[in-house]
Design a protein that fits this description.
Blueprint: E1 4-6, H1 11-26, E2 31-33, E3 40-44, H2 48-58, E4 67-69, H3 76-79, H4 87-97, E5 102-107, H5 114-117, E6 122-126, H6 131-140, E7 144-145, H7 160-167, E8 173-175, E9 187-192, E10 199-204, H8 210-213, E11 218-221, E12 249-251, E13 266-270, E14 287-290, H9 298-313, E15 319-322, H10 331-342
Parallel strand pairs: 1-8, 2-8, 4-6, 5-9, 10-11, 12-15, 13-14, 13-15
Antiparallel strand pairs: 2-3, 3-7, 4-7, 5-6, 9-10
Helix pairs in contact: 1-6
Length: 344
Amino acid sequence: METEIARTDTPEATGAAVKRAVDLLSRGEVVALPTETVYGLAGDATNADAVAKIFEAKERPLFDPLIVHVRGKGVLDEVAAVPEAVSGVVSALTENFWPGPLTVVLPKKDVIPDIVTAGLGTVAVRCSGHPVMKKVVREFGRPLAAPSANRFGRISPTSHGAVMNELEGRIPLVVDGGACACGLESTIVSVEPGEKKAVIRVMRNGPVTPEELKKYGKVEQAAREEEGGGDGLEAPGQLISHYAPGTPLRLLEGPDDFRPEEGKRYALLSYRGQEKDGYVGLTEFAKVGVLSPGSGKLPEAAVRFFYILRELDESGVDEIVAEPVPMRGLGYAIMDRLKRAASG
């Protein structure tokens, strides 16, 4: 299969790219589309055969559910049922974070096939803020299932080139919408009734931080993540081994954790790239990738994370060692991805 690239650098090109994507989706095909988080591999969420093509292209196990993209808060009830006990909190979350990088897990409706949700009675729903994805979902007129546009467990793509590296020859179309603004997959939450206020369970950390969510309920981290056959998975993105480069990655707790082995070539994934942090001078690294040069800014680190990780993975070293980042704000999401990458 030849993979076509559709540009969006002019209004005319964008219109043609959207039309081409919608045409393929209407025929039950899958296409790679940009979102503000990472590129997604989209298919008609109401068509089980189309969704099966997503799993096939990604080599994704069928026990791992997918996120469903809708065109707005007003059509949420087309794919999900919002329990009355938490309707106020769900409404507040979608009002304040949609369109955007927040996914909400809710009881699913029958229009969504079981293959999308891995047989679960819930569906993970999101409304993307990327202008291309918004146009495609609106013009297609039906919800789209769209996990990240990469092979299962690999580094998520934040550019059309990264998608081509992963899926060229496996899918018919990649829509080039430029680099992703957030760079990390969406935050996934569920909402449950609580004694005094609703409980917002963070099932995957992402661009919407726990600090931002606290305004709307009591925030708790999901109790477990699964490693093997998927027993107990409640949402997409919960597997322990995920987002992994092909090169082994080791996450350090501190500089004293690292002792280089003679003859091995190492790359460093550094937060700030500063000598005083104690990591850059640990050995003569073959390559150093810096997430946020200088003072260190977590939003910049998040945007650059998968790009830098992919760059180090392609550098030909024997092992990547990674510095920790501060556990605040977006640091929770970055550390989440690092821990999963180190488990690969």
